[in-house]
What we know:
Blueprint: H1 2-18, H2 32-53, H3 58-82, H4 86-100, H5 110-114, H6 119-130, H7 133-147
Helix pairs in contact: 1-7, 2-3, 2-4, 3-4
Amino acid sequence: MNWSTYIIMQWLPTYMSSYLGADSHSLSFTAMPYVMNSLFCIVAGHFADKLVSHSWTVLTVRRLMTSIGLIGPAVFLIFFCAVDSLLFAVIFISISMGLSAFNSAGFLSSPADIAPNHAGVTFAVSNTLVSYSIYNHKYVSIFCGVLTSERNITQ
């Protein structure tokens, strides 16, 4: 999840301007996916709480939220790749990033289930290990750019 978010964060403005012909005013729409992510995160939390209060097990709710948070964005990223319209591209990437927020009520809540008294430390350690993808994704981005002849390795 982190890796795809960082790739989208880095490449979305470039993709929108290079392939979809977005001007500098239209590039302000690259903020929309993150607004949707924030709103969907609140909705996902309330939805998960509602399911637990209706006798769903916590494990089942976590699995459902994680499934929505991983499968939903994948489907809308495929739609995003298939459109040539700036409007539909923004809509699909916004829905994709919005649905990824369901992970907050899914596996991202697991440290509170596993070690309630040490959830903060457990999450901090696991997130630190996962966040090393931040440092590695720039090399993957450069490699992808070289493969598609968009960037020179020295840039």
